[in-house]
Amino acid sequence: MNKLRTLSWGGGGLLVLLAIWAAIHYNGPLLRFAPAALVGIVAAGLPFGLAYSKSAIKSLRLSLADTDEGFSAEQGSVFVSTSAIDDSIDFLEAVHSVLQSDEEYDSVERDSFEEGPGLTVLHSGFHNSFVRITAAGRVVVTGASERTKLLADTVSDAYSLSFERTRNNPFDGMEPVHGGPRVFLGALVFAMLLFGTHAVTATAYPTDTYNPAERAVMVGFDASGSLDPRVSETDAKLSKAAFLVKVVNESATEVRWRGNDTERIAEHGESALEASNDARSLLASAEDESLTQEQTERASRIRGQLAEAERNVATALTDAADREALENTEPLTRLSGELRASANRTDAGSSPVSTG
Fold first, then answer.
1. Residues 78, 42: contact at Cβ < 8 Å?
2. Residue 202 · residue 194 · CB < 8 Å
3. 12-25 helix and 30-64 helix, angle to the nearest 10 degrees
4. Inter-residue contact 118 to 125 (CB < 8 Å)
5. For the structural domain made of 209-348, what CATH number should be given?
């Protein structure tokens, strides 16, 4: 199986399954996740659809050109039976006997082709024609010689078959996309899969608190706790809380990097406060369950790290508010105080309060 097919079928199928799982796990109507599922279906079928369309267009074009005036002795010498035969071996043996007894043909040899057994017929010492059978049981008489039509007529009389002349090669399957278009198609399928995954994660976590990469990681933790038998839901909650601690800590760095943009600094402070509340909720939910000793110790470590991260952001906000270049620093001072109070609640093991 080629890489493009693996990417489209595998990636598209996984995206559809992800959308269905998300609709169930996040208790949302499937319609909310339907766009992501649709993207997965399109991504899975796109390479096949393009190859099929290309083949169909080519077949239609050749069929429209199939007129007696349009054929020559050296081109278009393909004759396909209008009906299928039941037994290809019996058919070939019967035709072999008829052609051997006909003086029009120099020799008739049993032959083997990619699709199965057939006959090779020699005319005039060096011109060959062939009798072959398609997978569907249609008889195909083909060759470059102008006497190929005579061969088709002989087979038709011998076995009561009707033939139609065509330029279409009945043994041609769909040609996959090659070259530059294949690379472009692969990039397009990959982009569609990324878009579909983003649609799932954005629907699962419809908040500006987290960026797309963070939402994807959080959905990954949810999926591991829901689908991986090796990971308990409690462990998944603790892992997710530990990840949110990193998100909160990162906010302190963002605050320091924002220079004198008070509004953007305040946005990072708000995001840190919301992320810390989410982390504390996860810790409280996990601690309400029956924890092992290892899980209890891990939860305690995460609590300590969360409180430290909250104080780091609070300190960064205070430092920013003390800069003379900033105006209207009241939001920064307020957020710093709320994060310190939040850190105290984290230390005390209290549930979060609304920041609305």
1. no
2. no
3. 160
4. no
5. 1.20.1050
pLDDT-flagged residues of the chain (< 70): 1, 49-76, 124-126, 144-145, 167, 171-180, 259, 324-325, 349-356
| Tens digits of residue pLDDT in 202-232 | 999 998 899 999 999 999 999 999 998 899 9
Where are the domains positioned within the chain? 3-64+178-190, 69-166, 209-348
Backbone angles phi, psi at 54, to 5 degrees: -60, -45
Note the CATH number of domain 69-166. 3.30.160.110
Residue pair 203/22 in contact (Cβ under 8 Å)? The answer is yes
Please report which residue ranges of the chain form alpha helices under DSSP H.
3-5, 12-25, 30-64, 88-100, 148-159, 179-204, 212-227, 233-257, 262-287, 293-321, 330-348
Q: What is the pTM of this model?
A: 0.64
Q: How far apart, in whole angstroms, are the C-alpha atoms of residue 244 and residue 207?
A: 14
